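Exercise: predict the fold of this chain.
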Amino acid sequence: MLTLFLNDIQFQTSFDIGFSYRDTIPYREGLSKRVKDSGKYSPVRLFDHYDLYNYIDKTCSPHVRKPMKILVNLLLVKYAFMVINTVLLYSHFSRSEIDLVHINNGGYPGAYSTISAVFAARLAGIRRIVYVINNIPVGYHPPERWLDYPFDRVLVHLVSQFVTGSDFTRKMAIQILNIPSDNIMFIHNGIVPPAVTETRSQVVSRLGFAEPSFILTVIANLEERKGHIHLFKALQYMKDTHPELALPLCIIEGTGPLEQQLKKDVQDMHLTGHVIFIGREEHIFNLMNASDCILLPSIRDEDLPNVILEAMSLGKPIIASNLAGIPEEIDANSGVLTTPGDHRELAEGVMRLMSDESLRRTLGKNAQNRFYDHFTHEKALRLYGSLYAGLLKDVTS
């Protein structure tokens, strides 16, 4: 959503927008690729205890990593960083006349610097604060969350309006963070329909494999929560119970910590040749368009996945877990929803689409219509614009 704010000329005309971000090389590089005139925006040097975790993972032997991370928590490093970041952001906010601060977080607590941003904004005299939560909040059962509770209560009191990307996450945020229901709303994410520049044959040729009869593509980080192993189990189930059936070619796009383990799983399950790992694909929308079906077998920690919206905009049939905000994206008329972690149900969904081209066309068309009815970038920007205008009414009147 942030890229839409920063790239849309009409939105930029309606609001005088500045943008600040935690300065890291990956973020800066990603911003330059996705946002026009990214150089005019402001990087801010902030501190995050997760950087210490990453350093421990890279430099310490496996048996001492957990004790070292526990030590970081016992030393209350993240709270020291919160204080430092609050001072740094207060200095940053105080340099400009700001009427409203929009804070975007991946989840909650997510990046603790976003909590510092709320405190810094109020210290700088900014009364209008919009805080966006893009994943299900973490509750207070983990010990590392116990001392967060008082900070969360203050944050809930200071934020003018919470926004989530799905109604599911809105309800979970009310339950977990005890946010008053009239102080939190959901605005479905919107995307700009992707451009396609290659034919299916060109994509297949470029990736270097023979033209398959059916391409099933998973686009996701190689992490446990994305559920790749359940797809592999589904393929194995199909192979064992329907030996006469030609398995689909499964393209696995993405990288992540489970890459080597997943490749080993494919070998151990005798699926080599049916599953291809391609790493990061630069022309991701061409790959999606070349696929017969897009699949997302996630088992947890989802909200409203953009990959599903992108597939919908291309008119692709989708199989996805009935999880979090995903049922708000596709329903029984526009996709196949399966129980998270149920490989047999996943296999049945794959076989159903493989055997019925008419169904694939119908689901894809319905998904595309649903996208243009509910998930365009114009609609999302209009809703955010209305929210901003309401909060800024006394400023502009």
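Check your answer against the key: The domain at 200-374 is CATH 3.40.50.2000 (Rossmann fold).
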